[in-house]
């Protein structure tokens, strides 16, 4: 996916956690303090991280014109993080699998 498509894909998740007033907060995954609110705060934090990373990738692409291996690694990381966010949203009952598919279709068409 391009960074433009990633922006379109992340938008419904970012909008949801923002509208639910969950403050972005990185959670310690080892502490066992996970509950719905903690997962949504973490998802909000991850949305911000994804947006920051794709902003950086856009800036580097403007300078380099190409992606270097470390930039490809960041792009792959963004893809994994989106999958994690989607999983949190589906497990939390916020989006169905069909709605998730539609988000991806919309992003790929953009």
- Whole-number total of structural domains: 1
User: Total number of helical segments?
Assistant: 4
Unreliable spans are: none
Oligomeric assembly: single chain
Mean pLDDT across all amino acids: 86
Helix content: over 70%
Shape: globular
The largest pleated sheet is described as: none
CA-atom Rg in angstroms: 14 Å
Structural class: mainly alpha
Strand content: under 5%
For the termini, the CA-CA separation is 10 Å
Q: Tell me the series of helices and strands, N- to C-terminal.
A: HHHH
Q: Got a strand count?
A: 0
Would you kindly provide a written description of the structure presented here, covering whatever features stand out?
- The structure is a single chain.
- With 110 residues, the chain is mainly α.
- It has one domain.
- It is 75% helix and 0% strand.
- It is built from four helices and no strands.
- It has helices at residues 3-19, 36-64, 69-91, 97-109.
- Helix 1 packs antiparallel against helix 2 (36-64), helix 1 (3-19) packs parallel to helix 3 (69-91) and helix 1 (3-19) packs across helix 4.
- The longest helix has 29 residues, at 36-64.
- The mean pLDDT is 86.
